[in-house]
Each structure stands twice: as structure tokens, then as C-alpha cells.
Write a structure and sequence with these properties.
Blueprint (H helix, E strand, L loop, with lengths): L1 H48 L1 H9 L13 E4 L3 E4 L8 E10 L2 H9 L1 H13 L3 H5 L1 H16 L9 H11 L13 E11 L1
Antiparallel strand pairs: 1-3, 2-3, 3-4
Length: 196
């Protein structure tokens, strides 16, 4: 009988080891799942609290001011030709745009996103009417919109000043002022502007 008891003891010991390993694996999976849930819950809360700071810090740090006498960096874009939104007559505009940027490194980064930037600018232009584009105020507003749309593909969200002013007038509630988001595009220059 001693020989029969020995073979049964070996599988029982191996069964205990398997049970311990399975319990340990289940425990590791449960702890990992709880940790993942906690991290996912914290992430949206953190995004809501410091979204502006995160955007400004994550993508484009504010470079040091250029030294006096340093020439600016320009990124010329190919001319845009677009049908305008006039309803009574078919009109189009041909606009040449050059972006002035604060940093040569950012100019290279802009070139990597150029298809998305061109698409955003074309969409902005296609919603304009000839009357809007012929006035000086319309051109200045277009320059601000191009400045905003040119950095959007890089994850930088600049608020439109016109929308912000119109939304604050009727409510007259004290809104928490957001910290200004750094825009590496310092100016939009028009090299040609034809409306027909």
C-alpha cells in the first residue's frame, strides 16, 4: 500500500502548484484591471482641469525671443484658387499666403503638416463671399482665421476673437479667463489677392 500512496501524493502536490499559479495569475490580472480603470478615470479629469496648459506645453514650447537683427522665418504656401460662397454669381479668389513663424524648427514642423494646413485654409476661403474679401476688415479677419487654421493640425487650438466677443456680450457672466495659448505663427502675409 505504501507504493500506491506515493504515486497519488505526487499529482496532489502538482495540483496545488497549479492552483497557486492560477490564483496568482488571476490576482495579477485583477490588480492590473483595477489600475487601468483608475488611470483611465484620472486621465479625463486631468484633461478637463488643465487642458489649455497641457496643449500649450505638449506641442509647442514658447521659444526664446529672437535676437535683435535676426531675420524672421517665412513659410510661403502655394497660391490658393477657390470658388467663393456668393449665391447670385459665380466668383472665385486667388490668394497667395506666406506664414511668418517665430522659429525655424517650427517652420520645418509646419512643412510636415502642409496638406492638412492647406485643406483647412481652402475650407476657410470657400465659405467667404467676395464682399467679405474685398474690404480691409474682411482681409484682416481672414488673416486671423488663417493663423488659427494653420496651427490646428498640430493640435494647437486658438480661439477666434470675434466668436469670443460675441459669446460674452449676451451672457455677461464672469467667465474664467483662459491663459492665452502660444501661437508660433506670428503673422499672415498676403503675397497676392485677386477676387473675380
Amino acid at each position: 500500500m505504501a507504493t500506491a500512496a506515493a504515486p497519488e501524493a505526487a499529482p496532489a502536490g502538482g495540483g496545488k502548484k497549479k492552483l497557486i499559479i492560477i490564483v496568482a495569475l488571476v490576482l495579477v490580472l485583477v490588480v492590473g484591471g483595477v489600475a487601468a480603470v483608475l488611470l483611465l478615470k484620472k486621465k479625463p479629469a486631468a484633461e478637463g482641469e488643465g487642458e489649455e496648459e497641457a496643449q500649450a506645453a505638449a506641442h509647442v514650447p514658447a521659444p526664446a525671443p529672437p535676437k535683435p537683427g535676426t531675420p524672421p522665418v517665412f513659410v510661403p504656401l502655394e497660391p490658393f484658387t477657390v470658388n467663393l460662397a456668393d449665391k447670385d454669381v459665380d466668383r472665385f479668389a486667388q490668394v497667395g499666403v506666406t506664414l511668418e513663424v517665430a522659429d525655424p524648427k517650427f517652420a520645418d514642423q509646419l512643412k510636415a503638416y502642409m496638406p492638412a494646413i492647406r485643406s483647412n485654409i481652402l475650407m476657410t476661403l470657400s465659405y467667404k463671399t467676395s464682399a467679405e474679401l474685398l474690404s480691409r476688415e474682411g482681409k484682416e479677419k481672414l488673416a486671423r482665421e488663417i493663423m488659427r487654421e494653420s496651427v490646428r493640425p498640430l493640435g494647437i487650438e486658438i480661439e477666434d476673437e470675434d466668436e469670443e466677443a460675441s459669446s460674452e456680450e449676451p451672457k455677461k457672466k464672469k467667465k474664467k479667463r483662459r491663459a492665452p495659448v502660444y501661437n508660433p505663427v506670428t503673422n499672415v502675409l498676403f503675397s497676392s489677392f485677386i477676387v473675380q
